[in-house]
Amino acid sequence: MSEFPKLVDDCLQNIFEYLSNDLTALHSCVLVNRKWCQISIPVFWRDPWEYRRVGSLKKSFTIINTFILTLPEESQRKLLQIEIIQHSFLKRPIFEYSKFLQSIDLHELENDIKIWMHHQFKQRKKKVIKNFSLIDNNIKGNEQIQNFKRN
Which of 17, 28, 61, 92 has the smallest number of Cβ neighbours within 10 A? Predict the structure, then answer.
């Protein structure tokens, strides 16, 4: 009876390998149950940029965000210090996804990181403008302020 679970795992592995070119089917397998997830995730994440090629830039952001979460704490701290990421961003993932990587195109990775960084700063800029606008509106509505200076 102890051989049976191993046989099931091997069969599932073969099925997931067969499905490795069908992103939708493989993603569905990840969601079936814990066992299927544990066996299919390494197939899914061995070349995540392969799936990004057929998808949107949002998938690249998800991949980069996921890999940032698997960085050592010291690296994450440095990214926090230079405000590349925020505390609310940091949640440990279930898997060490970076350990499953088998293929990577450094040129694609570099381009995706540049776009991701641009997006991060653009989002932060929008937040700053929104907060400034709220403060500005509250100050202008304050009847006690008699003198506004602009430089």
Answer: 92
Taking alpha carbons only, the member of 12, 14, 3 closest to residue 35 is 12
Calculate the CA 99 to chain-centre distance. 15
Q: Which residues contact 29 (CB under 8 A, 6 or more apart)?
A: 15, 16, 19, 36, 37, 40
43 with 95: CB under 8 angstroms?
A: no
Q: Nearest-CA neighbor of 23 among 35, 1, 40?
A: 40
pTM for this one?
0.65
Residue 20 is predicted with a pLDDT of 86
What is the CB neighbour count within 10 angstroms for residue 48? Answer: 20
Residue 38 token pair: 């544990």
